[in-house]
Specification:
213 residues, alpha+beta, Peroxisomal Thiolase, Chain A, domain 1, 4-stranded mixed beta sheet, 7 helices, 6 strands, 28% helix, globular
Amino acid sequence: ANAQLNPDAIFHGKPADVEAVLASPIIASPLHLLEIVMPVAGGEAVVVTSAERARSLRRPPVHLLGAGEKVTHRAVSQAPHLTSGPLKSAMARAFQQSGTKADEMDLLSLYDCYTIMVATTIEDAGLCAPGQFGAWLGDHDLSHKGDKPLNTHGGQLGFGQSDLAGGMTHVVEAVRQLRGEAGERQIGKAGLALVTGNGATMSEATALVLGAA
């Protein structure tokens, strides 16, 4: 649904409801085709500079308030857990460094290579208890007008995953939202954003807390 407000998204103009997702072919049980990212071509970039220099630039800056990184394994057979991952530690570090908490985030810009990745990230962030993502989801609105805006650009599931640039789309969207430059999908309050990324087999994770100037 969020991708419908982003003309650059691969699924813009092609909405899919729950029934359509569940009717798409099973690729790796229990994941359906529409629960898995579509590889696309594309690129993203950000400019990183000092806070001092950023104040003199024409565009309002977005500040990196906290960051975390964690690697726990390579092959999924070596994963310490299958229902939790290294993002838990990475996010905890980013929150600690920034002096913030998960429930203070105005935007969740979460790596979503598969639907299950969003579920485990929400749980590992502490927004709900382990195994309670389904109930949590039913209580919240993830649209740009909702109480928990999530992947307002459509996420990789709706926007497309342009290889390594796929994760960068989450950074770019967070910057646009925190600058108030997201157009018709602009969220109401835009002060803090959580951005996550993961690689390999849920083994390598990074987390950022970004703040508006």
